[in-house]
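Run log // design_07
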């Protein structure tokens, strides 16, 4: 049966056939040679004069920067030899046959609401390269300073913004893509970003600790008089800048226009500002997520997708990780087992509350929650002297256990999104070294995300500056068990 939205969409398409077609022609001609993706390659058009079909779906990405140990979290190996096996035992979940690490008891209780993928593997052993593969499908195993290909968040943002433009959509009160503690850098490397799409498709960034009593999203507080003045100044600047905008060939003016419109909508729309305001939540809800940075990041993510944001990326790093502020548990950085014990309660509480809330609030078909990092950790435990003392690390010179980079095996958690949950997909060997069942790569992961968001990944066509073609990096197929049963 046709939904009211679909009916309105269809009527608009028929009534503005000539206008929409002209706009699409302009987009095709302009975007092909102007630092972007070709519009026809992004979606399958339902008909020549019809607008692209954009599903009302969203994704929340929880990124474990540095790479979590799969053995202490979602793929425990109690029968591994002593030199592989850590001190923690697996625990049963509410799902028959599924076990997780004993430090994740709240997630164990939510197991019927998520599925574990235990057989992700790729060849990039460095943090930058591993992140670029998982987030953007870059096939290169070597580290590089920044992305050559846009990450999936920017691609989805581009697709939906272009669909808005093709359909003459009214300005949105909220951005389509928000980063709460952004997934963007690893030390001096840029691990995500819009690349040649241009800065106009980067996220609206929320920084700082949302659990802090003094936290506020910058520039969202403004008085009525200031609001009116801002609109007048924006209208005037728009008139004065038209010539520069017409002459721009870098995408910078386009980005400024998008940022300005985005900021204006956020500043002048009370509903949009409320979406970022965690004080609107009851104390009991905030407590359930945890009065710490990761808990409140996840709560904000839920509020944002509920308010209409399509993509929310949030990174778990910082003080809650331990001394070096990430999940990179080499022995020189952390005592790996002390580190996971320290941070596990925070991630367990935050992610379990997010999953529970997504289902309780009826968001579970629209919103897909994904928890992952760039790779797993070495199954064999290493012992090296600490480079410095602190949280989860002995004093400098203390020999302590660690796990190093391991792209040959990683586990991911998927919840919501209309998928069948309470499953385990794939398996690694008894040491946790390599997949022995249903090996998948970053391309399969990305194809799965794109399918949920309604992006035709098979037709993605990349075109760089001046029309130079770029090889399509995505080489994978959606993982059937992680695709919504409604499609």
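design_07 sequence
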């Amino acid at each position: 049966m046709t939904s009211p939205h679909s009916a309105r969409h269809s009527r608009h398409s028929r009534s503005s056939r000539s206008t929409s077609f002209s706009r699409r022609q302009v987009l095709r001609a302009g975007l092909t040679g102007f630092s972007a993706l070709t519009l026809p390659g992004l979606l399958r058009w339902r008909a020549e004069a019809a607008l692209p079909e954009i599903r009302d779906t969203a994704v929340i990405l929880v990124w474990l920067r540095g790479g979590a140990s799969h053995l202490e979290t979602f793929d425990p190996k109690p029968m591994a030899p002593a030199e592989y096996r850590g001190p923690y035992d697996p625990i049963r979940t509410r799902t028959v046959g599924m076990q997780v690490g004993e430090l994740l008891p709240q997630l164990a209780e939510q197991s019927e609401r998520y599925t574990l993928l235990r057989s992700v593997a790729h060849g990039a052993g460095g943090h930058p390269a591993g992140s670029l593969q998982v987030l953007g499908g870059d096939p290169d195993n070597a580290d590089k300073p920044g992305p050559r290909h846009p990450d999936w968040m920017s691609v989805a943002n581009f697709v939906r913004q272009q669909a808005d433009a093709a359909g003459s959509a009214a300005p949105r009160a909220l951005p389509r893509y928000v980063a709460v503690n952004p997934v963007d850098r690893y030390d001096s490397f840029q691990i995500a970003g819009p690349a040649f799409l241009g800065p106009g498709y980067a996220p609206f960034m929320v920084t700082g600790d949302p659990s802090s009593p003094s936290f506020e999203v910058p520039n969202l507080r403004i008085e009525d008089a200031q609001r009116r003045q801002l609109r007048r100044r924006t209208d005037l600047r728009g008139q004065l800048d038209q010539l520069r905008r017409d002459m721009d060939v870098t995408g910078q003016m386009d980005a400024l226009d998008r940022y300005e419109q985005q900021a204006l909508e956020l500043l002048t729309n009370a509903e949009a500002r409320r979406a970022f305001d965690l004080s609107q939540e009851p104390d009991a809800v905030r407590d359930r997520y945890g009065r710490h940075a990761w808990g409140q990041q996840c709560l904000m993510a839920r509020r944002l997708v509920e308010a209409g944001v399509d993509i929310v990326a949030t990174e778990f790093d910082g003080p809650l990780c331990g001394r070096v502020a990430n999940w990179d548990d080499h022995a020189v950085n952390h005592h790996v087992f002390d580190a996971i014990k320290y941070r596990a309660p925070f991630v367990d509480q935050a992610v379990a509350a997010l999953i529970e809330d997504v289902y309780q609030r009826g968001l579970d078909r629209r919103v897909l929650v994904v928890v992952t990092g760039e790779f797993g950790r070495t199954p064999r435990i290493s012992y090296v002297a600490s480079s410095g003392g602190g949280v989860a690390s002995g004093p400098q010179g203390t020999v302590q256990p660690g796990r190093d980079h391991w792209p040959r095996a990683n586990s991911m958690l998927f919840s919501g999104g209309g998928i069948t949950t309470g499953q385990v997909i794939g398996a690694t060997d008894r040491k946790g070294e390599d997949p022995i069942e249903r090996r998948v790569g970053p391309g399969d992961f990305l194809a799965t995300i794109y399918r949920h968001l309604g992006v035709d990944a098979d037709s993605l066509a990349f075109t760089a500056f001046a029309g130079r073609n770029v090889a399509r990096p995505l080489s994978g197929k959606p993982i059937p068990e992680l695709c919504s049963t409604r499609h």
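The longest helix spans residues 336-360.
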